[in-house]
Amino acid sequence: MSSPDFEQALRQARRVTVFTGAGVSAESGIPTFRDRLTGLWERYDPMQLATPDAFERDPSLVWGWYEWRRQTVREARPNAAHEAIAALEHRVPAFQLITQNVDDLHERAGSTGVIHLHGRLMRSRCQRCGATLDSPGPAQPVAQGGARIPPPGCGGCGGRIRPDVVWFGESLPQAPWQAAVRASRDCDLFLCVGTSAVVQPAASLIDLARQSGATTVQVNPQPTAADDLVDHSLRGLAGEWMPRLVPLVGATTPHAAAAGTARADPPRR
Ligand code: BV8
Ligand code: ZN
Questions:
Q1: pTM for this structure?
Q2: Closest ligand 1 atom to the C-alpha of 199?
């Protein structure tokens, strides 16, 4: 049964921050970092592949993994969770979406101003001159099971091109990080969707929001490292919970009235 304080916190929210992880893209068919890899990368842990050392040691193995991930994302579609989150930004006066994900499914669902803490899968950059470019697709589709694909050279300086993402052991870009800290500190409702809350410093935003007085809610079918931190844990899929939560958020604001919404039955937890 939903508790009155939970529903009231949703209805009265004016400054909402949503923080997503790989689980929000799972129902679009994008494997999470908890999922085992298959094919060529079967014996690798994503945490080991998404590192500068792995790329230095075997650039074609890592670049092939990113080409396969780009192909998977291109073939995927945003799911109901992405769409509900995109609708949410029109219902309250202040809204910010922060994602750990490198896919572009939030943008393709209509979200704007998304803070990407860990970079963008569809963008690459030169290791030598730093030039960034939209990742061209592979010359031919990546075979099922994956393939080693040598990374291209930079058209400007001939340096090696790498994915424009933040690998483990690399620092987060300062501007997105500072913006995420502000959005976590200044919100009155913090929705944490589809993250194991393991990867740092991103996961520390949850406690920052809580310490700053926000009502914190997480949506996840599994227990997470944030279980003892958040005010409300909704066990279940993002694609099921988010379309039910959104019509309640900011329900008393003129923004919500203008955004229009079907009434939703209060979510049962
Ligand atoms: C840093 C881009 C300072 C790449 C990613 C040793 C040396 C250096 C650093 C460290 C170290 N030891 C620890 C660290 C810190 C390290 C870290 O956090 N490690 C972890 C493993 C403990 N962090 C870093 O390295 C960060 N940088 O600290 O810099 C520094 C610098 C130098 C030296 C020291 C310190 C950089 C971290 C960024 C890594 N890059 N992505 C790429 O994508 O290829 S993070 C990557 O992991 C993804 O972005 C992904 O988002 C994230 C995994 O987290 P989640 O999103 O939560 O995904 P996960 O798979 O874990 O969980 C999915 C959840 O979804 C699950 O809970 C599941 O139940 C749920 N779910 C599934 N289906 C659904 C669902 N939920 C809802 N609905 C569903 N349908
Ligand atoms: Zn270059």
A1: 0.94
A2: 18
